[in-house]
Amino acid sequence: xxxxxxxxxxxxxxxxxxxxxxxxxxxxxxxxxxxxxxxxxxxxxxxxxxxxxxxxxxxxxxxxxxxxxxxxxxxxxxxxxxxxxxxxxxxxxxxxxxxxxxxxxxxxxxxxxxxxxxxxxx
Length: 122
Description:
This protein is α/β, with parallel strands linked by helices.
């Protein structure tokens, strides 16, 4: 059975790149266009990992991660922040919200897949 990863990013192109890399590695993929959209799609199904952008309209990534961690079904779901933000303060804010890893764009798909395989829950 394949593991499910949710990608949350307001860039359609970026979601496609990440989706192709993940599907190529055998994962199933759910997509959210921003934090609000992604939250509306988390309806209790098993999601093994979330990859989220930080800067998005409607609901940014940090607010989204905090909201996800309030949901009992997703409280322990690991989150990777995929972002252009390389600043220490943003990283700390992300970690405080519950993000487990921080991948800076532009990224290599192989680099992201390594982070995913390290964090994904059995």
